[in-house]
UniProtKB/TrEMBL annotation:
Cofactor note: Binds 1 zinc ion per subunit.
Keyword Hydrolase among UniProt keywords: yes
Protein name per its UniProtKB record: Aminopeptidase
Organism, as annotated: Daphnia pulex (Water flea)
CDD domains: M1_APN-Q_like
Annotated residues for binding of Zn(2+): 330, 334, 353
Signal peptide: 1-19
SUPFAM superfamilies, A to Z: Leukotriene A4 hydrolase N-terminal domain, Metalloproteases ('zincins'), catalytic domain
Named cofactor requirement(s): Zn(2+)
Length: 831
């Protein structure tokens, strides 16, 4: 599942209110194979699923009942059969629904028992609901050539396979699946495996059954179905033994070219990276009009929200192109880490999502090296994770999940971004080649099975022994401090400039510590891999232990009194660094005289660390803001991203305060030279990251009142309004800034034009940009109207954009002074 919209996963299980500890299925029987037949009826007034399932079971403990999952499904009790392998029918006493636990219980006659070591088959017919709730097997509606059309697609993760068919809906209960789907003649159907045969439905003219190959063993949450009137992009055959196919609405067919190019290349790359061939004969990817998540890694049939798969070079920005690359790479990496080897239970969700969030940058970097994804992981993963992990309300990466209602809570920045950051840290201190060899051993040993995090640590410990890697303790001991504890440390560096010794200590970094906080300083300590440099030619390393006696460490060094030292080289470690005042001053002098002497990642780290350390009073703001002065010479996007991410909090706190004009003036002065250099219009020789920087600079220049920025944005928008069919008037990569600024500075006329373009657009990424821009208006009546439309399913704003509804509502209430303040509005404008 994809990180950029992980909050949408709350939709899937927020309805569940399970309580108590006994929510897991009893381990008396387990599935070995499912034979599934589903017919989704896509007609108004009769949206339903006609289904039949037959499950081969293995009994491990004597029992006279079978317990499996089922939700929003009505089973025909007369159809329920339990058969021994000898074709002996066992007497079924009846069925029972436990709606709170979402269990279906099949009771056998009290005189009949399933016996341990024996095999049985459970079969039944049922009717399900083909709802529009974007979970289970559900329906989507879209308009094609002026005609309203319906399609059926699926989203099973985490616990919604039970809404499509009765099943054993836990990740460790893997089985093989043979799927048959019913469809109309003008539609196609897709599932995890390739189609092998089509037969007519008896008594149903123009309807057919599509029969698919049996699957490999997999978890129920990876099951996938789609029935739609869709177009297929010509299949890509690679050097592997698999085909690569993309499906989309006919009118969006031309937006699939980029994904069709990079998808097979990324999949091939991961085969080499993991040293394990992709095990399926095909990989399909489909763009779904209504999809609650960003994407879902279903084995062999990955489903995407349209904006994360489709790309139109005439209207889609560079930012959207980056998203398409990363989301595709994220889902394809899951085919190994998550699908081939799956977490035992949701407690170890981070193994799936943390690794995929790390690997997406590696796969993306392979196909687009000029985008420097391996650098961008610092701002996208590490810094994002720290923002949440610095709160007392954070949680460990590995958090015990007692029942399904808790699962949605861990689809968050900690599982995804912190997971990625600590895996990157592990790869750094153990070495990239050793890292890849350990991953191969882990995947090869546990393929088609399940794992817990200790299985991964054991693989790394074994590899460390083979390759004679010297570590202070074993990998499990090190990594447990990062996965079983929430939060992270700030490492404090104090230099004795006479003796040249360096004193190092650690403590938990918190943005705010409540008066009732009970943090034990002996508990919140970590095994920290320390790296340091003075000139990037000499790089040293050591370890700071998690034990109280070793909380402080002294290094003897040969560093000159006037030489700076930087810890956490290229920020591979998951921690902040604070220095004594003089070392901060030496770093600032280096940045002002020749900032390129410090790596771009460490420049980003310095901005992020200093501004956040100032936020909690560990560094004075004068030091932090003096460091930002060098940015007027900075031509790389990473340090700017770090600065403005950290600045958002300061901006929101100072807004409407006496010093706010000084803050605006400070950054207007810093931004002015680079905005004058970059402007709104790109040059043909500009690199991709220059275009990314242009968007960031223009956004903040306009926000902080750069008159030329605002003037140009309004003029470009005026020209576009005069010729709305010309997409070249507003440069693609700054379109969001131009439209947002013009709407914020304009009135109802400017807003109406953007909303009209939103309704007419056939490109999901363009619609996303316009919808976000529409919330920038300062017209209260217009915001109120937008809110009403967002809550109206017939207005053209899709249900999947629900998270934006919350932002619109909050903006309206605050701008109308409902709460007596306007702080959230400022945070919205700087997001």
């Amino acid at each position: 599942m994809n990180a950029p919209v992980f909050l949408a996963s709350l939709l899937f299980v927020a309805h569940q209110t399970l309580s108590g500890a006994d929510v897991r299925l009893p381990q008396t029987v387990s599935p070995r194979h499912y034979d599934v037949r589903l017919f989704p009826i896509l007609e108004k007034g009769n949206f339903s699923i006609l289904g039949q399932v037959s499950i081969d079971l293995e009994c491990s403990e004597d029992t006279n009942r079978i317990v499996l999952h089922s939700a929003d499904i009505v089973v025909d009790p007369q159809s329920v059969q339990v058969i021994e392998r000898s074709d002996k029918f066992l007497q079924v006493e009846g069925i029972e629904y436990d709606t709170k636990l979402e269990f279906l219980i099949v009771h056998l006659n009290p005189k009949v028992k399933l016996t341990a070591g024996s095999n049985y088959t459970l079969s039944m017919r049922f009717v399900g609901n083909l709802t529009d709730q974007m979970r289970g097997f559900y329906r989507s509606v879209y308009t094609e050539d002026g005609t309203e059309r319906y399609m059926a697609s699926s989203q099973m993760q985490p616990t919604d396979a039970r809404r499509a068919l009765p099943c054993f809906d836990e990740p460790n209960l893997k089985a093989t699946f043979t799927v048959t789907l019913g469809r109309h003649s003008d539609m196609i159907s897709l599932s995890n495996m390739p189609l092998i045969d089509t037969t007519p439905m008896i008594g149903m003219e123009n309807f057919f059954w599509d029969h698919f190959q049996p699957s490999v063993p997999m978890s129920t949450y990876l099951l996938a179905f789609a029935v739609a009137n869709y177009a297929q992009v010509p299949s890509v055959k690679t050097k592997g033994k698999w085909n690569f196919n993309i499906y989309a609405r006919s009118s969006a067919y031309n937006q699939t070219r980029y994904a069709s190019d990079i998808g097979p290349r990324i999949l091939s790359f991961f085969e080499d990276y993991f040293n394990i061939s992709f095990p399926l004969p095909k990989q399909d990817m489909i763009a779904v009009p209504e999809f609650a998540l960003g994407a879902m890694e279903n084995w062999g049939l990955i489903t995407y929200r349209e904006k994360f798969l489709l790309y139109d070079e005439t209207v889609s920005s560079f930012d959207h192109k980056e998203l398409v690359i990363k989301v595709i790479a994220h889902e394809l990496s899951h085919q190994w880490f998550g699908n081939l080897v799956t977490m035992e239970w949701w407690t170890d969700l981070w193994l799936n999502e943390g690794f995929a969030s790390y690997a997406e940058h590696i796969g993306a970097d392979h196909v687009e090296p000029d985008f420097k994804f391996l650098e961008q992981i610092v701002t996208f993963a590490l810094h994002q994770a720290m923002n949440l992990d610095a709160l007392e309300s954070s949680h460990p990466v590995s958090v015990v999940v007692h029942h399904p209602s808790e699962i949605a809570e861990i689809f968050d920045v900690i599982s995804y971004q912190k997971g990625a950051a600590i895996i990157r840290m592990l790869a750094s201190f153990i070495g990239e080649n050793n890292f890849k060899k350990a991953l191969f051993n882990f995947l090869d040993k546990r393929q088609y099975g399940n794992a817990v995090q200790d299985d991964l640590w054991n693989a790394f410990d074994n590899q460390a022994k083979v390759d004679h890697i010297i570590l202070p303790v074993n990998v499990k001991t090190i990594m447990d401090t990062w996965t079983l504890k929430m939060g992270f440390p700030v490492v404090t560096i104090r230099r004795d400039y006479q003796s040249r010794n360096v004193s190092i200590s650690q403590e938990r970094f918190l943005l705010h510590k409540s008066e009732k906080a009970t943090d034990d300083p002996t508990v919140y300590l970590w095994w920290i891999p320390l790296t340091y440099t003075t000139d990037y030619k000499t790089i040293g390393s050591t370890w700071l232990a998690d034990s109280q006696p070793s909380k402080n460490l002294t290094l003897e060094s040969e560093i000159g009194m006037n030489d700076w030292i930087i810890f956490n080289v290229d920020e591979t470690g998951y921690y902040r660094v604070n220095y004594d005042a003089h070392n901060w001053k030496l770093i600032g002098q280096q940045l002002m005289t020749n900032h390129s002497a410090i790596s771009v990642i460490n420049r980003a780290q310095i901005m992020d660390d200093s501004l956040n350390l100032a936020r909690v009073g560990l560094v004075d703001y004068e030091t932090a803001f003096n460091l930002t002065e060098y940015l007027k010479f900075e031509g790389e996007v990473l340090p700017w991203e770090s600065t403005f991410a950290a600045l958002t909090y300061i901006d929101s706190m100072m807004w409407q305060k006496p010093g706010y004009d000084l803050l605006k003036k400070h950054f207007r002065n810093i931004l002015s030279p680079i905005f004058s250099s970059l402007g709104f219009h790109q040059n043909t020789e500009d690199s991709p990251l220059t275009n990314k920087l242009r968007l960031l600079i223009s956004k903040w220049a306009c926000y902080y009142g750069n008159e030329e920025c605002i003037r140009q944005a309004i003029e470009l928008y005026r020209q576009w309004m005069a010729d709305p069919e010309d997409p070249t008037i507003v440069p693609i990569d700054v379109n969001s800034v131009v439209v947002s600024t013009a709407i914020r500075e304009g009135g109802e006329r400017e807003w109406n034009f953007a909303f009209d373009r939103y309704k007419k657009s056939n490109v999901a990424s363009e619609k996303d940009t316009l919808l976000n821009a529409l919330t920038s208006t300062r017209e209260h009546d217009v915001l109120k109207r937008l809110l009403e439309m967002a809550l109206n399913s017939t207005s053209g704003i899709r249900q999947q954009d629900g998270p934006d509804v919350d932002m619109i509502l909050m903006t309206y209430l605050i701008e109308s002074n409902f709460f007596g303040c306007q702080q959230v509005t400022r945070q919205k404008e700087t997001r």
